[in-house]
Amino acid sequence: MTEPDKTKPITLAITGASGAAYGFALLKFFLNNNYKIDLVLSDNAVKVAKHELGLDLQHCGLDQRKQMLLQHCGAAATSTSTNSSYARPQQSNFNNTAVSPQISLSSKIEAKKAELKRKQELKNRYKQGLSYNLNEASTVAASTTSYTTSPEPSALNPQLSLWAADDITASIASGSYKSQGMIIAPCSMGTIANTAAGTSNNLITRAADVCLKERRRLVLVARETPLSSIHLANMLKLSEMGAVVLPAAPGFYQKPQTIDDMVQFIVGKTLDVFNIENDNFQRWDSVRQEPVYAGH
């Protein structure tokens, strides 16, 4: 395989479908292997991350959330490491406790106020037709609380840009922004439906729409079972448009021993679509295969 150009970022979105481990395992791989990432988490993805991974990203601004994500992924604050590009990440702990500090009720109230101010400012600036992103100075940034919004690469880690799901003025919402493509993992059926319909109802579906119209890679790690005819029709439509539908259905021929083994199977298959070399899972080798039923 030819290694992708690491100067171009990859957009990673995590939605509220069950299977948050897939998205965060991908994030960990990218950060620990020096890929530039534009990350978007839906509101429901934040809730699922707390329930399934014990990762509490609620009630905090994007800057603090970014710090917590870097801590969770084990990425250095100013990562310039040149470690092996394709080393498999250490096994994740899917029962880990929340890494966020205790947040007081008053802090939560202030965070909510700051969030409302940010949304109102985005609406006002959008109506005025101004070019704007959350890295610019705003009324929220002037707040005395720690819940400021600063999603652009910073001294925290220049590889990671964190965007709010409602920020339709983000870089990844434009086709003129060059990227390698996009991964949505896990991808809810609601996100698939909105992407198939082209509604662009939030930043995730808008960025996916950009990938489709610009003919860039779009991988949808679909997570639902069973699938209705509506789900199947939407996925067929997206497949015909060039998207890769990659169901979160791990194989078992590699004889997984842990949950992380099954997660890494899907991570590895997703990376394969982007031609990113990895050894996240054991590949099938017909020459070395062991008989499934010895003696039969």
The helix tally amounts to 8
SSE string? EHEHHHEEHHEHEH
Rounded Rg: 20 Å
Low-confidence blocks of residues? 77-103, 129-155, 291-296
- End-to-end C-alpha gap: 38 Å
CATH homologous superfamily classification? Flavin prenyltransferase-like
Describe the fold and architecture:
With 296 residues, the protein is an alpha/beta fold. It has one domain: 3-Layer(aba) Sandwich (Rossmann fold). It contains eight helices and six strands. It has helices at residues 20-32, 43-53, 62-73, 105-127, 189-197, 203-213, 229-240, 259-273; strands at residues 10-14, 37-41, 160-163, 181-187, 217-222, 244-245. A six-stranded parallel β-sheet has the order 3-2-1-4-5-6, sandwiched between helices. Helix 7 links the parallel strand 5 and strand 6. The two termini are 38 Å apart. The model is unreliable at 77-103, 129-155 and 291-296 (pLDDT under 50).
Highlighted features:
alpha/beta; six-stranded parallel β-sheet; 8 helices
Brief summary:
The protein has 296 residues and is of the alpha/beta class. It contains eight helices and six strands; from the N terminus they run βαβαααββααβαβα. The chain has a single domain (10-273), classed as Flavin prenyltransferase-like (Rossmann fold, 3-Layer(aba) Sandwich).
Topology:
Blueprint: E1 10-14, H1 20-32, E2 37-41, H2 43-53, H3 62-73, H4 105-127, E3 160-163, E4 181-187, H5 189-197, H6 203-213, E5 217-222, H7 229-240, E6 244-245, H8 259-273
Parallel strand pairs: 1-2, 1-4, 2-3, 4-5, 5-6
